[in-house]
Amino acid sequence: MCFDEAGALSRSFAPRFKPVACFTQRAVGARRGAIQPALHSRGGRRPLAVANAAAKLRRMEPSIYQFPDIFRRVHMERPGEIEHEAAFLREIWRRHYPRPVIRVLDIACGNSPHGQIFARTGIQAVGIDDSPAMISAGRAESRRLDSIRFYRRKIERFTLPERPFDAAIFMCETFPVLTTNAALIAHFKAVAATLKRGGLFCIDVDRHDGVDLVKRRRLWRARTVKIGALRIDVREFHRPIGWYEPLHSIYELECTIRFPGRPVVTRDLIPVRYTTPPLMDLLSRASGCFSLIACYPDLSFTRPLAECDGRWFAVLKRL
Ligand SMILES: C[S@@+](CC[C@H](N)C(=O)[O-])C[C@H]1O[C@@H](n2cnc3c(N)ncnc32)[C@H](O)[C@@H]1O
Fold first, then answer.
1. How many domains is the chain built from?
2. Does the beta carbon of 171 lie inside 6 Å of ligand 1?
3. DSSP letter assigned to residue 36
4. Measured from the CA of 17, which atom of ligand 1 is nearest?
5. What's the gap in Å between 174 CA and the centre of ligand 1?
6. Contact (Cβ atoms closer than 8 angstroms) between residue 202 and residue 92
7. Is 141 close to ligand 1, i.e. is its CB under 6 Å away?
8. Whole-prediction pTM value?
């Protein structure tokens, strides 16, 4: 198995990671995002500390999203997990949408593993993501499929030259990347504008209570991932955050990819914003575009929410 420095593998991997899921359920570090306008970056889009730290990181080190295949391995996906999630989404649609779903928008799609599964069964899938490397990986993997398209977009605010969708999905517990109230509302409005009336918006939300506030950045855990001959040293950090922030914590992921002769260090800050079902309900109402119609824990239609172990699905209906 060989790699180039864009992180591309000579073959794709069967097992997929569970990215932000692991980040947010178990990784809980911290940093700051802010409620006060003074602490926000211009336009109120991101908490200032997150924006500053992210900008500094961007100047210094690449993101793991620039290495799509390595990223999947680093994040410990279980075999069959994506297929299971896709089947679960289909069942949500069957229960809550009166017609067959034929057009799906995949938000923060990465290489859109879910969209690719749907596209193979004739559903028209469109993915949006901000990472050129992830989108290129998606395009390369789906080049034989006519029914999937990718657009480079930031999810906070976007428009698309597309006909309306029956459903939108936001998978992999990536929802916390929306760090401010303004971004959340703008996002909901942007998604609503792409959906048919009555269309469904399914959000895969992390559950991570027991967040530990830390005073200074500290190592949480370290491990080594091997992909063939390539070694990746992974270190995860908790980062401090103010009590008044809209985020609960910031988790920092550092990967040292030991390419022969030239190790590359990637660094990502992953915001952790803890969204409970009542908060999702409030958000939906505040957006004026959605209502929360169902919550399902851990890919189950029968388990009570009180027994939710790691994640839950919010099902929103476009008003
Ligand atoms: C954990 S991956 C999930 C990919 C895919 N949904 C999946 O299930 O495998 C998160 C993706 O979110 C994208 N992302 C993060 N923040 C974003 C933003 N503000 N706008 C657009 N994409 C973003 C990243 O580029 C990355 O591809």
1. 1
2. yes
3. S
4. 9
5. 6
6. yes
7. no
8. 0.83
**302 pLDDT exceeds 80?**
yes
Q: Residue 10: is its pLDDT beyond 80?
A: no
How far apart are the CA of 301 and the centre of ligand 1, in A? 26
pLDDT digits (tens, 9 = 90+) for 32-78: 222 222 233 333 345 555 656 665 555 578 999 999 989 888 877 78
Cα 35 vs. chain centroid, distance in angstroms? 23
Question: Are the CB atoms for 129 and 154 separated by under 8 Å?
Answer: no
Instruction: Output the domain CATH number for residue 248.
Output: 3.40.50.150
| Residue 59: C-alpha distances to residues 42, 52, 55, 62 (Å) | 19, 11, 6, 8
Locate the ligand 1 atom nearest the alpha carbon of residue 114 and give its number. Answer: 8
Question: Do you know the residue count of the chain?
Answer: 319
- β-pairing, 165-170 vs 103-107, is parallel
Higher-confidence residue: 276 or 209? Answer: 276
Instruction: Provide the pLDDT for residue 43.
Output: 36
Domain that holds residue 316: 1-319
Question: Tokens representing 94?
Answer: 């069957």
Q: Is the CB of 109 under 6 A from ligand 1?
A: yes
Cβ 104 under 6 angstroms from ligand 1: no
For residue 110 and ligand 1, the question of a CB distance below 6 A is answered with: yes
pLDDT at 95 over 50: yes
Range from 31-35, 78-82, 105-109 that averages highest in pLDDT: 105-109
As a dihedral over the C-alpha atoms of residue 197, residue 200, residue 203, residue 204, rounded to 10 degrees, the angle is: 180
